[in-house]
Fold this protein.
Amino acid sequence: MPHGLDDARIALSLVAIEPGLKGVLIAGPSGTGKSVLARAARMLWPEGTPFVEVPLGVTMDRLVGGIDLERTLAAGRPVVAPGLLAQAHGGVLYVDEINLLQPESANVLHHTLATGQVRLEREGLSETHSAEFVLIGTFNPAEGPVSPALLDRVAFIVPAKTLKDVPSRAHIAATAHQSYTIPSDVIHMVEVGREVMQYISVPRNTLKELCAAATALKVESNRAEVFAVRCAMANTALNARVPITQGDIDLAVRLVLAPRATRHMEIAKPDATQTPTETPPSRERTEGRSSDAPKPDVGQVGNLSHNQADVKPMDEEEKHAPLGLLREPSKAEGGTAAGKRGRGLNLRRGRHIRSLPGRPGRGQLALVDTLKAAALNASSRREAGGVRVQREDLRIKQFRQRTGLLVVFAVDASGSMALNRINTAKAAAISLLQSAYVHRDKIALISFRRDRAETILSPGGGVAKARRVLESLPTGGRTPLSAALAEVYQLAGEKACHLRVAGTVLVLITDARSNQPLRSAPENADRETVAMAEVERLSKQIRPLLVGALVMDTRRSSGGNGPDLARWLGGQYVHLPKASAGQIAETVQGEMAKLR
Amino acid sequence: MREQSAASPIFPFTAIVGQEEMKRALLLNAVDPGIGGVMIMGHRGTAKSTAVRALAALLPPVRAHEAKAEVFIQGVRTGIPLFPLEESGPDLIPVPFVDLPLGATEDRVAGTLDIEAALTRGVKVFEPGLLARAHGGFLYIDEVNLLEDHLVDLLLDVAASGVNVVEREGLSVRHPARFVLVGSGNPEEGDLRPQLLDRFGLHAHIITLTDVEQRVEIVTRAEAFRANPAAFLAEREPKQIALREQIVRARGLLPNTQMSHQLLLRAAELCLKLGVDGHRGEITIARAARAHAALEGHRDVNTDDVRDVAVMSLRHRLRRDPLEEIDTGEKIEKAMEGIM
């Protein structure tokens, strides 16, 4: 019976044989049983092998190790409690929804995979622990990508698919109540495979074939072919035979190289059960052409339009709107210091920046700093004997959370925009991207033309990628402004939450001549009128999601819909018919500065 | 804490396939640390970390007392070595190599109050941090763009001044911290502040090798090393020794190298033509070209030396034009055609 997790099962068996494959990431929508399989995979390792699960909210001290409170107080000197990474040494580290891991935690994770050691250099502690483990992770690509650095460090990124044929679905439904176990014959094959592995050698022709495939698929890493070779070897071992067969090579191409392809190419044999195009979206591959966020389908957009009643009447809100174009940003949570410098500082989460005097009720106790203060104060108090911690010695941790803004550029690439104006908009976008790093801003780029809008740069991409997508940006066709706004709605809503940014700013570069509605216009209705009505509705929906908006009108003459559009979005209108890229970038930066 | 890296075998520098620009940039810094470090930009999985670690392991050992420094407390030279000498054991130690962990906190980087001494003996003792440990060697930051800004600023300040100043927890300590700062990054991951880029002496670009023969060689060597590190190291030893001796000779030759006035003029002309702001461009070219000449075994810097270091010295100092489509490296090569 075929199963949506077939590839995942193979990959897990292979990594259980050859830990040098480093790990398996299983990508798929919820309800495909990927987490169940991942947890069951521990049966593939001998009993007693560590299997450590990392919760999403894991703190840095639990991950890399930190102070052992009880033993430190008893011993009167810092005693380290090893973290989860060190506990997984020699075994398996499992992370459910690995794409939602805090960025700092993901960084430490990929670094540990690289070095096999976890280095603890925190809060006065300095130790090194061995941490060689196999990483198993699951994620739902619809909820955001996995850090590319992490993808590069494991051999397998495999899909968990929803099956499309009725008998298989029925089989799954019928057996779903049984707790999932790995068949004993598979466990046996893996055990034998570990023994066989040492006898497998790789002929030069096989190496050549795999390396040629990596080049043909334009895989951007020389680590991938090392993984591919190990994968072919492990599959040979799994099947307890020598030498390596063409089937082993094909499997390595399909499971290791194809998901990292930056160029499509039919490499897999036709008899392979899955074609490379069905492999899960690796970030490198999808971001260029299409968004990894699900496209708003017609039903969703219909929803938007029907929710019109939820929108406050425009005029009422208008009266209270501040005169400046950008509304006040939401205050950072738990902030201790107001104003520019204090942004992102809080007592609850983020990175531990420093410790402040304070009672533990207000935040987390910073034990080491408390002890330091006690020791220093004790000598001035001239206390005899052991150190006693007084109330004034207590220190709590202050954290900083990265709080840049999400800047969404929506660039009109329709035929009514003359080519040189599009080039100006492109240049402005790139120059703003370059300055985004300073403020930890995330930039997203939407282009819209003909009948659709597309996120061509997902939030977080760099200048190199932006330039690549912008260079090949097609232009011409009608102006689907409402489709663009629907895309903005997606980014500003769901995405912005995951990105943990302070707010979203929209920069819309267009001549505002919307003439392509999202929904087909009714009989004998004017298409432009319908399109503009949509734009008005959507703008008002988006408005509460933004902390600022800027409409850059590139229309030659004055007038037109630009000023209305800016008003609906609650943003600033700038008429820049002959603006240079530098002027646009300067204007946006000026407005952003007011927000910080 | 003792470094454990000595225990695990390190992939030999001479066995790294391709990536000549990165290797040359690292070697130049090994000859003359004054060049100011190197930033390595490029795809993942291209042996960046391997190369830096391998270089430190290749270099001849340093005297322990040279790697350790003296502490100034409240501005007064105390005569206390930064690390107790008996702790360091033998007189000669491997070149320090510190791989900055991403989760490191500022107190561990700069150094802090020794809490054990404070608690048990009630005395203020400075516990040196990673900057002290890197003194005389290399400090490597993988994925600089992922590191917290305040730590990057601290590292760049110390790397430039060669002195670490700690003012915290009632301590006032300064100690020398001279090391070669090596950073790596991936341009797709997000960009680096231009001010930050400019502080690295050289800027090397690396890309995934696409030549099939080279790729096969990478896999073959990686697997051979994994299967039997000792045998692999033994096999490479003659090449390692030859390169080590070349570096030692170059270090000796470096003070005697010279760059003619005419060549200096041409380097300045090149920077002018490319619109490089400031004077770091030609200063770096001159320094790197002398190290290059020393490495090649001659005293007088020639045009080839300058040509070989110009791209990596200037790449990160050009004004960035958002509409520019050609690679900055090509642009520099082109500008050189007329001058060199």
